[in-house]
Amino acid sequence: MSVLFSILPIVLLFVLMLGFKMAGHKSALITLIVTILIALFLPNQFDFAPEGYEQSGVWWAVLEGFLKATFPILIIILMAIYSYNVLLKSGDIEIIKRQFTSLSDDKGVTVLLLVWGFGGLLEGMAGFGTAVAIPAAILISLGFKPGFSALVSLIANSVPTGFGAVGVPVTTLANEVSASGVATQEEILDISSKVVVQLSPLMIILPFIILFLTDSSKKALGKNIVLALLVGIVSLVVQFTSARYLGAETPAIFGSIASIFVIILYAKLFTKSGKKVEEEKVSTKANLRAWSVYFFILLFIVLSGPLVPSINGFLKSTLVSKVHLPIYPEGKFFTFGWISNAGLMLFLGSVIGGLIQGLSVKTLLTVLAETVVNLRKTVVTILSLVAIASVMGYSGMILVIASALAAATGAYYPLFAPLIGAIGTFVTGSDTSSNILFGKLQANVATQIGYPDPNWLAAANTAGATGGKIISPQSIAIATASCGMEGEDGKILASALPYAVGYIVLAGLMVYFSVGVI
What we know:
Blueprint: H1 2-19, H2 24-41, H3 55-90, H4 93-103, H5 107-125, H6 130-141, H7 146-156, H8 164-177, H9 185-214, H10 218-245, H11 251-270, H12 284-290, H13 292-304, H14 309-317, E1 320-323, E2 334-337, H15 342-356, H16 361-374, H17 376-394, H18 397-409, H19 413-428, H20 431-448, H21 454-468, H22 473-482, H23 489-513
Antiparallel strand pairs: 1-2
């Protein structure tokens, strides 16, 4: 009964979104209410309450979820959409569109460059939904259908999330499974390289799927295979080298930059240039102005990240708010840095770029207000989803699900290890949160079943978590907001689900059969 009640919120969310085709904000809010009721009355009755559980703590868990949802997830989502809306207001999005369409007449090249190359770079530097929101919005501005734009952006925003936000998920995982609680550089390098190996087939398969979804004609099949192989192999080599010798911070960044170069080179050598626009030639100055928003966003993210330790250290130690909730053990706080979060970098880049593009401060504030109002349903969705994750974690539901799966699979557990990571991401919306919840569990199960390499199973948690990201309700909420499809979360979930299932199955096979490769 404890397993049935623990899994009920996840099942309910699926049923409401897929079965009843209910809007995301309504589905999430109803599921949150049900989750709270379960957490209030059933953990003690069915004896799955963790140590320290109290009924009053459930409400503090809801508050914790609201805090986590707002700082920084909602701020980053709002600012990512805001950056795109600034470009729309200034009209310079037309110049960016022209650059993408003039590169090649092959739509597959354009889509892959945006969602896999540019999107992967955004994920590696910022994470938290920017890699879904911005590429999807640009695709729509190029004339692609909203449903397609959402789907390919979600599929592409999978593999890079393991090393997203400058490697935070894998670094967190390494700390969770380290005996000392603080991973050594060698431990981080070991887990990082294992993650890349487990995801290696997907680095080739996903680009092909994206290309196939863009153009499924027989004529394009050969081209799609060649381009997917080129991009996938280069991504794999660069990411593995970065992971094995540099650490968790750079694989997604360097892999995406390498992919961008390969796609552009392929476009120049093997495809025709896009249609010439019958207008005056755009000057270099105008091109730089059009890209100023994204240039400053990337600049601020790089300068504020771990790659520049002096600035990163100052930002992380200045203007930091700490909140100690009653459900926290002594010494634990909910922490938020007001000047160190990616949301501020997105906002600053958008404002500076907007000013360069000729918008007034008043206009920029008006665009910001309109962005917030237009995303009100997304705000409800994200608040509800993150609160669900906090309540499920506090009341012991998430651990019940994971432990039951581990007990049921026995020696075949490695096949299902990525599924646990995917469940963590589906519930929490975060690869990092999934690693916090289940990273240590994966390593402990490895010891219990006599598995030769606990770090391999720990890495499997991230491998699966990246697949769960495709259908995470939080990611889908971001996609619907970016594509103007609010209320159609179930439709996007249904289209993305088969790809997520295939992804997780393949990750499980890689974990089970390729242990000992490195």
